[in-house]
Amino acid sequence: MxxxxxxxxxxxxxxxxAFVPWREAxxxxxxxxxxxxxxxxxxxxxxxxVIFKSAAHARRLKASAEMLGFExxxxxxxxxxxxxxxxxxxxxxxxxxxxxxxxGADKLGVSGTxxxxxxxxxxxxxxxxxxxxxxxRGLRLDVAEYxxxxxxxxxxxxxxxxxxxxxxxxxxxxxxRGFADALMLDWLGRVAECTxxxxxxxxxxxxxxxxxxxxxxxxxxxxxxxxxxxLGLAVIERRIWPDxxxxxxxxxxxxxxxxxxxxxxxxxxxxxxxxxTTAILGxxxxxxxxxxxxx
Length: 295
Ligand code: PMP
Fold this sequence. Notes:
The chain has 295 residues and is of the alpha+beta class.
């Protein structure tokens, strides 16, 4: 059976401080965000009823809004409480959580000053971003035509809807060409990230990952760096140029939705998910599981 459309499901969505039935969580067609992309969002996962890095996601949501020039009228603590309540109210334990903040329909023009800022939180079951069989073989990545924007051209560090236009185009093109996703270069042509995940490479047992100063600095990326160092692995954040890609032995992606996803190839460069990727996969799976309080 086909998956139900996102506007035709049962459950409750938190909208501006109250719970509304899922199908009634609507915005008007003259909403500023729909016309001018004045919206920011998060993607989070709950494991065993607990959202991994919930506070970090709430802080990034507020920071993304500030980068777009508006303030979300809820504190980090209130956003965290709303997310937890959404899970409880919908009876969800292992789930994806999607907070979204946007400028409303009070005014319609390029300047959104004076519009009310809305916040919604929805959650749903979402097992694995990538097909499970494909994940273990390693994803095949295309190289995107679009590049991540120069931070002087767009608020490149914000998790803002507008920045996703090129990600959507790149991912759709990759899928048409038979790939799972696309590796995107930054504005100078250096390796950046995928359309919704950060990228790591392995060489001689050390991890190499691009410096996240002109694309989304993933919360999973930060967690994986910490976990890798905890495992005694060297992690080198540096500029990586595409001509280096054949010199790496392993490659994997990190992201809330993707989790840790081994890569089998970028274009015609092959990688074999090996010991380092397996160690990181295991460490991440342990880290996301909520700890039971000591008796
Ligand atoms: N880059 C982009 C463009 C993304 O959409 C995501 C997913 N939020 C990531 C990286 C990974 O970020 P995180 O680990 O915080 O989910």
